[in-house]
Each structure stands twice: as structure tokens, then as C-alpha cells.
Amino acid sequence: MHPREGWSEGGIRRRPSWEEAAISRRSLLAGAAGLALGGLLASGCSTTNPAAAASVPPLPRTDRPVKWPVYADNKPIASGLEPEKGATLQLYNWVAYINEAVIKSFCKKYDCKYALTTFNTIEEALAKLTTGELKFDVFFPTVPVLGQMIAQKLIRPLNHSYIPNIANVWADYRDPGHPFYDQDWQYTTPYSIYTTGMAWRKDKVNLTPSWDMPWQASAYAGKVAVLDDYRETISLALMKAGNFDLNTTDPTQIQAAGRALQQLSSLTNVRIDNNDYTDVPDGKTWVHHAWSGDMATAADYLAKGTSINDIGYWFPANHKGPVANDLMVNLTGGSNPVLAHLFINYMLDVNNALNNYSYVGYMQPLTEVTPAKLTKEQLLPPQLASTVVLPDYFRNGVFQLELPPAADALWESTWNTFSKGL
Question: How far apart, in Å, are the Cα atoms of 26 and each of 21, 60, 180, 249, 412?
Fold first, then answer.
């Protein structure tokens, strides 16, 4: 799942309908097949079909970085081209995940129009893109789907000469050999970056924040919530046990995490939702597993009589916790590749990034975007400076990345056992 999954056009999150959930969740048949393969996966065995193995994109890891191929029939555009004239830039993004004022200022600068189309789940977006019928120029995917998109040649390699503002981005994204999921940023630039931590009401709860904070909150039963996200919440249980391999394929570890979540439910009557950004400020929830970008907007949802001083967001001091970032890519099906490059460059301008942050609450990994900068510009209350992501978080944090299908099915079945009826 994604922090923007389940948002409505009005910017208020809604729970996906049964039909939508069915699209974004693996089918029962696929899950059963994955479970049957679980033993193979856990034992480290691989497919005996070399051709099939060669067709599967590698799974990037921080300790196993990937440099993707550039195909002869999918090369970067030439340098020195003029922007397309009389164009309508086609953008495909999550709901409520970009400030249209920034898009309008780009279009004014480059004398073009734009069309913004949105999606609620990455599965929905990929299903539409793979038909080849939609001709978008810029897309905002997640890291786990990058390999399959490159293999299907849905993404055009970038011509770096059009993107000088990459110099504003953390070195972890632009230096040779970086980032780990797309070495030398051949296909991607970063969009937003965020952490997953704990939010709580300081005026209601007397607990030291930690990964086991929800389990400690038995006295606050009915006021505790975890994210409605199978990767995030199983990861929370893994970290409570001291396991920071958030891409584990070990059935023993995954099932132990499931049992810990069952214990949490018994202790606190835990709720499962993604309303951290509203429910903590208005007091419905006192302890909530939360995303940093959501909690950066908490001041907008404070209940009457509640002070921003009462809201806390915790990410560990050693920065060893979940971190994730979204991407900007140039799609091969787009009709305006030069404008697409220029738009990506425009979004990496510091002032434009700050303008975008003022709407979405999710920051971009730019060197000048610091806690001091955001508070000085009155874009973030100093009490919530802990929601800001710093370069060291990228280096020391742990990423939830694409899993082999069998392991993913086991994660989902473990989640379904815990979440059903909640």
C-alpha cells in the first residue's frame, strides 16, 4: 500500500471498496500458489528454468544495488531539443499528491497546457499503463515496481542534460553508483521521501515512544491504531522483535510477526486504518503507527482546544526504521518527452519543491529542504520537525522492497489472518 492509497479527490482518505481492494490484493488462487512455493523460497532454491529466471528483473537491495540495462529500442532522447509546441503535458499521479499551482506555473513558463490524471493504487496505474492506450508523459511510481516497468519498456531512460536541478538532490541519489535501486539514476529521479514511525498524543499518553509502543498501551485500549498496510504493520511487529530485515522471506519470522499482531489486538482492541493525520490531532486515537508526511499536516486537523504541542511523531534516533521514496519517470508512451524532462527538472527546484510541500506534506530529498528551512518558511510547526527526513535516514533506514511472489503471498496471508473483521 501507499500513503496516498484510498484518498478521495477532495483530499480526505476513504477506505477502498471491496471491488477496489480486490484489484489491489493478490487473488486467493495466486496466494495459495505462493504458499505452496514458500518452502522452496525459504530454503533458498531457485527456478530450474534458466530462460524463466533470466526474464525476471533483479530485486534491488541496499546491499545489492542494480544498474538497469538501456535497451537498443528504448534509448534516451537526444540532447538540445526544444520543448514541444502547443503541447498538453500529461501527468499521472496519486490522488492529492501534487500541488496544481506548481504545475500551472510550469505551464506558464513553457507555454503549454496540462492534464492531471490520478489513480488510487499502483496496481490500478500499472494495469492501465500496460494496455498502451494511455499516453502519459510523467508518472510517479514506487520503487518496488521499477524493475517490471523497465523490463516492459514502459519508462524512457533519462537524458541528464535536461535535468540540471538534480544537483539540488541529496548525494545518495545522484553520485556515481547511487541510488541502490537505479544506479546512476538512469531511469528515475526522486519525488517524495518519508519515514514510518509512531504518532501519539502527549497530553493523553505517558509512554516512551518505541517500536513496541502500541503493545505497551493496554491502558489505552480502543485508542490504539496501526496502519492498514500489510507491509508496514507486519514490519512493525518484526521491528518489535528486533528484526530489521523488512524483506524477509523466512516463514518463521513472518508468522511470529503475525502472532505478535494478534497479541496486540487482544491487548488494545487495536484499530486498523490510515487516518493517522486526522485521528491523532482530533483525539480519536492516542497512539498511532504513522507516516511522517501525514503527521506533517497534523496542525490542519487539531480539535478545538488541542495544541500542536500535544502532538508527537517519533522516528528512532539511530534512524534505523522504515524509509521510502517515490519516483518521477518519463514514460515511453508520452508525446512530450522534452517537456517531461523539463517538468521533472522543475519539480527539483527548491522553491517549487517547497510550494509543493505546502500542499502535500510529503517532502522531497533536496539538500536545502531542512527542518530549519521548513519552519522558517512557516510550512511546518517546529513541534513536528521530527517528520522531516534527513540524508542519514536514507543511509541507515530500512526499505520495504519488492518481494519474490511466494514470500509476498505469505506476508499477505499473515496479514489477512490478523486484519479480518477489524
Answer: 9, 22, 27, 17, 8
Domain 88-193+326-380: CATH superfamily, name plus number = Periplasmic binding protein-like II (3.40.190.10)
Q: Which residues contact 322 (CB under 8 A, 6 or more apart)?
A: 195, 196, 232, 235, 246, 397, 398, 399, 400
One pLDDT digit (tens) per residue for the chain, 422 residues = 789 887 876 666 644 433 333 333 333 223 333 333 333 233 333 333 433 344 678 999 999 999 999 999 999 999 999 999 999 999 999 999 999 999 999 999 999 999 999 999 999 999 999 988 889 999 999 999 999 999 999 999 999 999 999 999 999 999 999 999 999 999 999 999 999 999 999 999 999 999 999 999 999 999 999 999 999 999 999 999 999 999 999 999 999 999 999 999 999 999 999 999 999 999 999 999 999 999 999 999 999 999 999 999 999 999 999 999 999 999 999 999 999 999 999 999 999 999 999 999 999 999 999 999 999 999 999 999 999 999 999 999 999 999 999 999 999 999 999 998 56
Amino acid (1-letter code) at residue 158:
L
Output the pTM of the full model: 0.89
DSSP tag of 403? P
| Residue 282 vs residues 213, 276, 305, 307: alpha-carbon distances, Å | 20, 10, 10, 10
Q: What are phi and psi of 394, to 5 degrees?
A: -65, -40
Q: Which helix (H) or strand (E) holds 120?
A: none
Question: Where does 241-336 have alpha helices with state H?
Answer: 251-268, 276-279, 292-295
